[in-house]
Design goal:
Blueprint lengths: L1 H33 L15 E5 L10 E4 L5 E4 L3 E4 L5 H11 L10 E12 L5 E6 L4 H7 L13 E4 L2 E3 L3 H7 L12 E5 L8 H42 L1 E10 L2 E10 L1
Parallel strand pairs: 5-9
Antiparallel strand pairs: 1-2, 1-5, 3-4, 5-6, 7-8, 7-9, 10-11
Length: 267
């Protein structure tokens, strides 16, 4: 009886072992899936981007501002000097700058954020070059330029990278509030809204037609005024000539024929 029981246990032991192992794997996977991702180290800096530094409690610090990161991954910062930041996290840069600037800062809580270099040209309120936080939205980037200068040509908003016209649905990303990174925008990209042509459209040609008509009317009025003045002058001269002369007529009758001869003499 004991042998039979042992045999029965031995027969089911492998199956129970496999089921137990599977349960452990499932539980472990669930635990790791629910564990939050550690983003405490911050964002990553990239060569060719920019770096935004600020000291919240010391707004007049020389360290406040935006600084370019060259193609080799170095940034030249006030006092600190030239430091390598490519592939460094914002936390690493903050800690390093805080240590280097400790003797100069009243508050060493330095904030460092990656920035995207953007050029906004064309039909913007304030076109120009801007450093925009990498995680900022397309809407926030447009706001730095004051937004479009009007609704005209807003649907023609394009993104250029060098001389290439990218096929990014940038107006849709603007409406959705998508971040620059997620929208596919990189440092050096150009936001272009074409400036509307002022010499086109119905109202332009309508106003041009009115202007031309007014000019023609002015010329015609001047010509008519000169002609009327000429007529008045000519009529006045004729009347004056008639008053300074007299006619002397002589009638001669020969048989049934009567002949009248007139001569004009000055008075």
């Amino acid at each position: 009886m004991r042998i039979k029981t042992l045999n029965t246990l031995n027969r089911f032991a492998p199956r129970q072992w496999v089921m137990g192992l599977a349960a452990c794997l499932i539980l472990t996977t669930a635990i790791f899936a629910q564990a939050p991702v550690d983003n405490s180290k911050g964002e990553i800096f990239r060569a060719g981007d920019g770096i935004l530094l600020s000291v919240p409690m010391d707004t007049e610090s020389v360290i406040n501002g935006s600084f370019p990161i060259d193609s080799a991954g170095y940034a030249d910062l006030p006092v600190v000097g030239r430091i390598f930041v490519h592939n460094k996290t914002s936390r690493q840069v903050e800690d390093y700058v805080s240590r280097e600037m400790a003797q100069y800062l009243r508050d060493t809580h330095v904030r460092a954020k990656p920035a995207v270099r953007l050029l906004l040209v064309g039909f913007w309120q304030h076109p120009g070059m801007h450093y925009v936080e990498a995680n900022a939205s397309v809407w926030e980037a447009a706001k730095l330029a004051g937004g479009p200068a009007g609704e005209v040509n807003i649907k023609k908003w394009i993104v250029m990278r060098g001389s290439e016209d990218l096929t990014l649905p940038i107006l849709d990303e603007f409406s959705r509030g998508t971040t620059l990174r997620n929208a596919g925008v990189q440092s050096g990209d150009i936001f272009v809204i074409p400036v509307p042509n002022e010499h086109s459209g119905f109202w332009y040609w309508f106003t041009q037609g009115l202007s031309a008509t007014a000019q023609v009317a002015t010329v015609a009025t001047a010509v008519l005024s000169v002609y009327i003045a000429y007529l008045i002058y000519h009529d006045t001269n004729n009347n004056g000539n008639n008053q300074n002369t007299h006619n002397d007529c002589t009638t001669t009758v020969t048989g049934n024929v009567s002949t009248t001869n007139c001569h004009t003499y000055p008075n």
